[in-house]
Amino acid sequence: MNSSGGIQASEAAARRLRRRYREERRFRAYGVGAILIAVLALAALLVSVGAEAFSAFTRYELRIPVTLEAAVVDPTGARDPQTISSNSAGFTQLVRGELDSRFPDAAADRNLKRQLARLISSLATKKLAHEIARHPDRIGGEVVAHVPVSDTVDLYLKGLVSKEQLARPAAAARLSLAGEGLAVDAAGGFAGPYKAVTAALSAELAVRTAAVDASTEAMNGVGARIRETETRRNDLASADMSVLRAGVEAIAAEGDPDMLAIARAAGLAAQTGRGDDLVARLSAELDRLATVAERESGDLETKAERYVQKHEEAVKAGAPNAQTRQIQARTAYLAADRRAVDAQRYREIAASLPQQPVDRQIALASLVTGAALKPLADVLVAPDAGLGRLPAALAVNAVEQAAARAQVEDAARRAELIAQRADRLRPAFPDRAEALKEAEDRMASTEARADRNLQLLVDAGERLSALAAADANAADADASAGALGEEVAGQLGLDLGGPLAAAYTLGQSDGDEADADARLRALLVAHADLDLTYAARDMERLTRKRDIDGRDMMRLQAILDYPQAPIELGEYLPSVLIEVNGGVLKVDRLSPDRAETSVLIPVASRGEVASGQWRTRVLETAEADRLVTDRQVAWVNTLAAEGDIKRVLNTSLITHSDSTYPELAGLAAALTGSAWIMLVTLVVSLPIGVMAAIYLEEFAPRNRLTDFIEVNINNLAAVPSIVFGLLGAAVFINFFGLPRSAPVVGGLVLSLLTLPTIIIATRAAIGAVPPSIREGALAVGASRAQAVFHHVLPLAAPGILTGAIIGLARALGETAPLLLIGMVAFVAEPPGDLFDSATALPVLVYKWSSSAERAWQPMTSAAIIVLLLFMFAMNALAVYLRRKLERRW
Amino acid sequence: MVMNRIDPAAQIDPEVRGAPSAAGQGDFKIVARDVSVFYGDKQALFDVSLEVPDQSVTALIGPSGCGKSTFLRCLNRMNDTIEGCRVQGDIRIDGQDIHDRSVDPVLLRARVGMVFQKPNPFPKSIFDNVAYGVRIHGLASSRTEIEEIVETSLQRAGLWAEVKDRLHQPGTGLSGGQQQRLVIARAIAVSPEVILMDEPCSALDPIATAKIEELIDELRSNYCIVIVTHSMAQAARVSQLTAFFHLGQLIETGQTEALFTNPNDPRTQDYITGRFG
């Protein structure tokens, strides 16, 4: 080749060529990467589901010879198959009796007997009962009963309950009596189990240590908060007016501005003796409250009238909800009445405000803001004013009693109003006496509440007086009075350092600068004290928790510090079992060389046991954390060792239907249901879909209408499946009255779902048939329909079938629409026909996956695997059909 | 699966069938008057009038898009199957107006067979391909009769010798030229009177083309054949009459020899001498 010219000529061309190769390589890499990701995702799915499902494909079965005692199995003696087969309880009794005789020491104890009985499933003997019912001649003889073990035992045997360590220690063991149980001595024989136990202890120690650390850290935080608050409190002594004011204003900033403004005006009024501002603010607020209450009352009354009307209609129609309507009417009327009284009271108070003395105005302001304003301020300022706590508390109490009396008066007035309005309740209370009684009840309760408050204050006042009269040590009395004041404040819901008090104090200092700084300082001190109280409470709680964790930590540490020390196992540590001489011992106290045990299954003999002749079994999950007890473990392992428990193929997964017991549940009903549903879907959607597609593709004129239909078929394919479920429930069940949870409804709903898919696939397949075929047929004188049915359809068939099967496969996996038509019901029998109650595979998967018990997890995965197999089979069929039909020409 | 067993012959007016002259169109098999074709708003053919004699080959030539295929498809109402296509004017075959209400287009197509540019055998066996038309029109009453018709048709199409041992193998497995002859056999099987050919050789190699041309020449004695072709050589070889189309108009018709040697219209002259097209 000539190197100076030709195709190698230019450097630029070579560069372009390299770039092209690079791009091609890159795109190939993208493709390979995408496929790898897809394959990995599929593999991950299959592995994760498959690994979980694997354990559900087998199950453990107890095989135990039982003598079929006629008296138990067939108490009537009639040998009636019906009676025998429904008497599975009798068979269960026999099997349990057999187990009891195997482990006689367990049979003596009620609790142990129950544990033993729970080795097998409650309904496990159903199958045996059916079998014997078919061969009644076997009664009286001996049969080997094949009984599924209970789900927890099954999970244990499959290793899903606890990690287990089995070891045959290379040391001889000596068994000797020790107290109630046996002691086992083996030099270093328990090193393995001891290590497992110390590992568990170490893990626990780490948890406790972390908890102690967390508590300590939180305590440091609280300590810092306390120190900071104390500093703040101390600094108040030297703070100047502007700092004090800013501090109080910051506190007052939190809260409802309207209420705070009233509180501030009240403070001002208290200090200056002029209540104009307060009256203005209070009136405005009362007016607002009254308007709101009136509106609500009106609304409630309208509602009440409606209920009365409904009640009357219901009475006329003899409907059962008449009583409910009446109660609703009454409740609404009473609520309306209560708000009306509120409104009236607000207006009365507002009207009377200007004529009241200032003290009274402040008391009413307290009523509106919900906190006794004046006493708050007084109690704050008192200690600093040199009064001492006791006299201050007495003074406050007196004022508060006055406020409480005002409240009692208010209650009395309300009672009056309620009585006046009793007539208005008439529509709901045709009997006037009844209405009055209702009103009286409410009057009484309102007054009682006010009285209770007053009484509380009177009591506190008496105790304070008693303290004063006792003339005890002044400091003690002060402290008691302080505590009592706080107690009363707590009961009345006063917030000593809170925003309302702050606003009130600000109002006071607005009115009179004289002792303003003292007041403000007092409030800030109270606020800081409040913070300190909360912090102290937090500190106490944290300390308590840290101490408990710390004690545990030290205890665990102490055990771990002595490497050979015996450890008490208890139910919160791993269990260690010793299998020796045909018996099983549970270790209570363990050291590397010696185990003190209690007997779970008696040993044949004591004395020396050679190494290799005994073994230890460690269950790492503590007994308290699992459903299988140590004793059950001992029994099950003994039975398994004797060959009485066998792992068998879980055929009931296919032959049984749903059950509340996972070990007995199966997919039969769901499989049948799904098959029925698929049949209905196929029969309904394939012909309709194919015909629609043929019409649209071959016969329909191209116009706006067909365009519209085409767009909407595509839209339909994109509609979320749950919407079809709603539609199905509304149309097929409610309108056509088809039975709920029937395969026919499920099939119809899923047909709606698959129709667009089939139509689209069919149209694509028909569109792919070359037009020359159609023309050829037309040219020899075939009609349009002949051309379609003789030539186009056979050519399009593979595509149509593929589309239909893929649509069906999608429908097979649908859950949401089936849930909405009630297919989620518990179905214990495979459906007999299209109108029977049924469920479907994906719905069963959904249902099982939401069950809590551990044993449902493998069952769910197994169901998923079966569903996937079903789908893969359908897809494989699609591929096969396409290949076969396409190969024809 | 035969959907419509109607004898096409029964539908056609016996008077028309038997006596073309009765309709006053002389010796011509097909008489087209003022045929205009519209695709939507676009007019593709302008007032074409043409007479086609029986037992002869008439070639329609002209540059691409001149309307010759459109005119051909008017003759068996294939244009009816195209949406938005409208045909005006009067076309008579044996004096019978093919647009008459009494004429069923499907039966018309049995009388006027058509062969397309690209061989389009059905994806069925060779036998079924030929037998299809026979079956749907109920032209045979027994299996033997069908076999006879198939054999005759294949023989007339010159394919029998090549395929007689593999009648039940797919027609799509044949070579291009064989496929085209199979399609012709398929058309002949329903015993049409007219055979329309739309560039039947344009997808074939020269040897296959020669065979088809030979076949056309043989068929001439029994049928009225109208052929659209791009190849002027082919037109000269196979046709007795030639019509030259240009831009939707029929420019000139005449005896093939005369038209090629002594065209009247300068456009024909230009086309024949290769100035355009």
Features:
heterodimer, A: 889 residues, alpha+beta, nine-stranded antiparallel beta sheet, three-stranded antiparallel beta sheet, 68% helix, extended, B: 277 residues, alpha/beta, four-stranded antiparallel beta sheet, 12 helices, 36% helix
Protein model, in words:
The complex is a heterodimer of chains A (889) and B (277). Chain A has 889 residues and is of the alpha+beta class. Chain A is 68% helix and 8% strand. In chain A, the strands form 2 sheets. In chain A, strands 3, 4, 5, 6, 7, 8, 9, 10 and 11 form a 9-stranded antiparallel sheet that branches. In chain A, strands 2-1-12 form a 3-stranded antiparallel sheet. In chain A, a hairpin with a 2-residue loop joins β7 and β8. In chain A, α30 (841-849) packs antiparallel against α31. The radius of gyration of chain A is 43 Å and the shape is extended. The model of chain A is unreliable at 383-387 (pLDDT under 50). With 277 residues, chain B is α/β, with parallel strands linked by helices. In chain B, 36% of the residues lie in helices and 24% in strands. In chain B, the strands form 2 sheets. Chain B has a 6-stranded mixed sheet with strand order 6-7-8-3-9-10, with helices on both faces. In chain B, strands 2-1-4-5 form a 4-stranded antiparallel sheet, with helices on one face. In chain B, α9 (206-219) links the parallel β7 and β8. In chain B, α5 packs parallel to α8 and α8 (176-189) packs parallel to α9 (206-219). Classes of the chains: A alpha+beta (889), B alpha/beta (277). The A-B interface holds A 701-702, 770, 772-786, 789-791, 794-795, 888-889 and B 1-4, 8, 76, 78, 81, 83, 106-110, 113-116, 118, 120-124, 132-133, 136-137, 170, 172, 183, 186-187, 189-190.
